[in-house]
Design a protein that fits this description.
single chain; mainly alpha; about 0% strand; ABC transporter involved in vitamin B12 uptake, BtuC; two-stranded antiparallel ribbon
Length: about 325
């Protein structure tokens, strides 16, 4: 039996296509979806549709990156959609609308994310509030603040640069997708190659072991919630650039979609297992399936059915796998 010290030095999971195929089959499942959908609807493979899929997947992918950190430490964050909406409202709160204000807007959004993430993490780690209740309460508070500030009205006074971020292309690729790639490289490195990343996996997979080796588990958990909220705030700005208008429900549904995509992508709902790259595969599978629902002319409610099936299947898979490991 390995000691807690050995556990903390154990190398973190390294990613390869072989591992993804063997452990999750996600890449094969994504390719299968693409093949089947393209047969049923040839319009799926049109370049413009594929670029639309990538553009729509980027904001959700950003949120999933942050959600993965919370799930890995046995938590979740239901406030991500509300953070996105509040971040979007912040973007329209400045009198000046020239592009020179964009750094200020991003700084304000990041500060919002740090504040919300700190509150969520404090409630969960220090006060022992369940992640569900803590982040649900934060959601309600943020909703109240938005409605109080805007009186329920929508806004569109955004610097033109946001349209470039949300809808623009660079070298033929969506700009927001490039932002997602940059965030993935940074957060992927932090999670899979840094000391903090090892601590995240140990806190989520073996809380007692983390305590015995002197890891400040509360600080790790709070940091994960801060990362999640900050990334959600950035995603909100990217999404509002794509939509072009701010309302009170910008990002609505992303709280559930981000959890579904992360779980489908291999992030264990009981913590300590999974990686951001698998989670992103989950994002693209989800977005491709949603796109197929539209192309095939199916009722939009089918999307909700698919989400429920994915959560049930993934939950059953990880519970079975966990029991097998214990045995």
């Amino acid at each position: 039996m390995s000691s807690p010290a050995e556990e903390t030095e154990r190398p973190m999971p390294r990613m390869s296509v072989g591992n993804l195929l063997r452990d999750y089959g996600l890449l094969a499942f994504l390719l299968l979806n693409v093949i089947v959908i393209s047969i049923l609807s040839p319009a799926f493979l049109k370049p413009e549709n594929l670029l639309n899929i990538l553009t729509q997947a980027a904001p959700l992918g950003m949120v999933v990156l942050g959600q993965a950190f919370c799930l890995l430490v046995r938590g979740l964050d239901l406030s991500v959609a509300s953070v996105m909406a509040t971040s979007a409202v912040l973007a329209t709160s400045f009198a000046a609308t020239d592009n020179a204000m964009m750094p200020v807007i991003f700084a304000a959004a990041i500060a919002l994310g740090i504040a919300v993430g700190t509150v969520n993490g404090f409630l969960v780690a220090k006060r022992g509030v369940s992640p569900f209740l803590a982040t649900l309460a934060t959601t309600i508070v943020l909703q109240g603040i938005r409605f109080l500030y805007t009186e329920g009205s929508s806004g569109s006074t955004l610097p033109e640069g946001f349209a470039v971020i949300g809808q623009g292309r660079f070298l033929g690729l969506p700009v927001n997708l490039l932002i997602l790639v940059a965030l993935t490289l940074v957060l992927g490195y932090v999670l899979h190659f840094s000391r903090f990343g090892r601590q995240v996996y140990l806190v989520g997979g073996n809380p007692r072991g983390a305590m015995l080796v002197g890891i400040r588990s509360n600080a790790v958990i709070i940091s994960c919630y801060v990362i999640c909220a900050v990334v959600a705030a950035i995603a909100g700005l990217c999404l509002v650039g794509y939509v072009g208008q701010v309302d009170q429900w910008t990002g609505k549904g992303y709280e559930l979609d981000s959890i579904v995509a992360a779980v489908m992508g291999g992030i264990a709902i009981n913590g300590g297992r999974g990686n951001v790259f698998g989670a992103l595969l989950g994002v693209f599978i989800l977005v491709v399936m949603f796109n197929a629902v539209i192309l095939l002319g199916l009722p939009v409610q089918v999307q909700m059915i698919l989400k429920g099936i994915i959560v049930i299947a993934a939950s059953a898979l990880y519970i079975t796998d966990g029991n097998r490991r214990v045995a």
